Amino acid sequence: MILYPNAKINLGLAVERRRPDGYHDIATIMLPVDWCDILEIVPADDGRTTLTTYGRLVDCPPEKNLVIKAYHALSDITGGLPPAHFYLEKIIPDGAGMGGGSADAAFALTGLNELFNLGLGKDRLALVAATVGADCPFFIYNRPAWCTGTGTNIEPCSVDGITGRAILIAKPRVASVSTREAYAGIKPLPCATDIRSVVNLPPAQWAPALYNDFEASIFTKLPAVADVKRRMTDAGAEYTAMTGSGAAVFGIFANDILAQKAAAIFPDCDYRVCHEPALNV
Length: 281
What we know:
This protein is an alpha+beta fold. It has two domains: 2-156, Ribosomal Protein S5, domain 2, CATH 3.30.230; 161-280, GHMP kinase, C-terminal domain (Alpha-Beta Plaits, 2-Layer Sandwich). The chain has helices at residues 66-78, 100-115, 122-130, 136-141, 179-184, 195-198, 215-221, 223-234, 256-263, and strands at residues 2-3, 6-18, 24-36, 38-43, 50-55, 84-90, 145-149, 153-156, 166-172, 239-242, 249-253, 269-274. The strands form three sheets. Strands 1-4-6-5 form a four-stranded mixed β-sheet. A four-stranded antiparallel β-sheet has the order 2-3-7-8. Strand 2 (6-18) and strand 3 form a beta hairpin. The longest helix has 16 residues, at 100-115. The chain starts with a strand and ends in a 7-residue tail after the last strand. The mean pLDDT is 93.
């Protein structure tokens, strides 16, 4: 079984409060985009469950990878899964705020559910995904969604403002951001705007109501990220912002031609012109 875990971007991200458990409540819209890893799952005939990675360097041992954590989480609630071999080609940049590792884990759950005929619905899989990582449940549903709490409270929403447009995403190769580092620079405040109504307007009208709380501190620490946002705006993006806790920046352009032309000015970045994945719109 071969799957294509896709990335996401955040349209607005407010860090509203620190919770007693040390995590944070957020308010954001997550949008799936078609920048994908490749994940193959094969039933194992040697009695072992393994993960082999290719492509971008994965800076953690296999047993700590979210794919393997997802396998064990699903095995725990089903009374044990048959062994499987996972082969993961990493294409989505890490340290980017695009949820690549979370997508890999969520797609592993949906793939195992199908491969071993477990018969679990999306809501049940999302509960398992929430034990693996805060962004993982979003990728179980993989559709535009209003996400609150730690990101695990998910409601479908419309994002009419991007209809017919292209999204250029660029991440400076010299910059990566850890989630812990990003939250250390935040002063939580409740979101002042219902951004669900904002994203149905044309993107040129999104700012300043649509904002990412992480930008101020990350731009100070990593000027290269701020520079990407500036260049993308200068290239004609209707709206641009950092996604997640960084370090990738996206710009929304009127069409593919303008987005592809803008992409040429980012040779120092990993970049892609993206859209919503057709299967998830």
